[in-house]
């Protein structure tokens, strides 16, 4: 069966370094396809049962239940539900650890005063992946392009590049009925240090221009969501007309999810290429340290205090989400760390109001979104390019302060 492929490699930090390799799984028989779906079903049921156990114990005895306590109960599960352990205890531990992460995140949000979001029971439609948390229960045969899964057998897998390091854990994820992918986490990977270029750059993030560079280059935003809105709307309208639970509704749902998946893949591909080009060409990269979550909040307000310009703010929020600034910054962060580049985030305050030529600060300097005109020296420039130059200067100053503190500490011995 011919399947599409999506592959990415990420290197994070210094030893142990993790690498994520994505490969497409192509089952060799319908029996394997059914076995993989059955694996998902059993692990979804285990997750819900473990969640119910935690809720029940706290409700009646006011006692919390830890991940290790629940792992101990797996030894007795073989007598009651042996089919759940057909694929090994490793995948069951991965499911219990997934639930444990949900509770830890819940407690953390409670402590910070955020909306808690208590862990919910999962339906099979929302359970698409399983995790093997150690090296037992599976074995990768890279030379044969196969992976052996306990209880399933040798499954064909297509890896787009050789594996580096030592494979440690894997995650299987179902995309749709015909497409799966596998994520392999590896350790002990050498850094890919790049030679020095002597170049420095400041970048200003935007929605019309994805980034404006301090060297005068503008990278136009692709707006993948905006371009696919009409197609997406047609598929969503078709989905709403289908009867719930019918096969036709299932096919329409796949069209909607497939469109969203394509938009996401296009955006990810664009940000990977852009971040790679910046890391390859510049030793110092300075960007705005933006609070993107607050910037994209709804301005709807409440009944007592309704928001203003809600429609315009909603459109801006959609454009910010479509630009995926946070994703671009994350890609630059791990690539820069791997290549031994310096990435600095600076306070964006006043960067759009300062004249990069004479350093005059005024709101009046930027009258429009595109044009910057200094009221003191008459300097005329694209507003984003001017901001990018100010961002670079702020980054150089911040880097100088860090280097100075290191020298003082070193000299005090």
Would you write up a description of this structure?
The chain is of the alpha+beta class. It folds into 2 domains: 11-187, no CATH class; 200-221 and 264-411, Nucleotidyltransferase, domain 5 (2-Layer Sandwich). It has helices spanning 30-61, 67-72, 74-80, 89-112, 224-227, 229-241, 247-281, 292-295, 310-323, 325-339, 383-411, and strands at residues 11-12, 18-26, 129-132, 138-141, 146-149, 153-159, 166-176, 179-187, 200-205, 209-213, 218-220, 284-288, 342-346, 371-373, 380-382. Helix 1 (30-61) crosses helix 4. The longest helix is centred in the middle third of the chain and has 35 residues, at 247-281.
Q: Please report the number of helical segments.
A: 11
Q: Which percent bin holds the helix content?
A: 40-55%
Q: State mean pLDDT (0 to 100 scale).
A: 84
- Number of DSSP strand runs: 15
**What does the main sheet amount to?**
8 strands, antiparallel
Structural class: alpha+beta
Low-confidence stretches: 1-22, 409-413
Global shape: globular
Tell me the series of helices and strands, N- to C-terminal.
EEHHHHEEEEEEEEEHHHEHHHEEEH
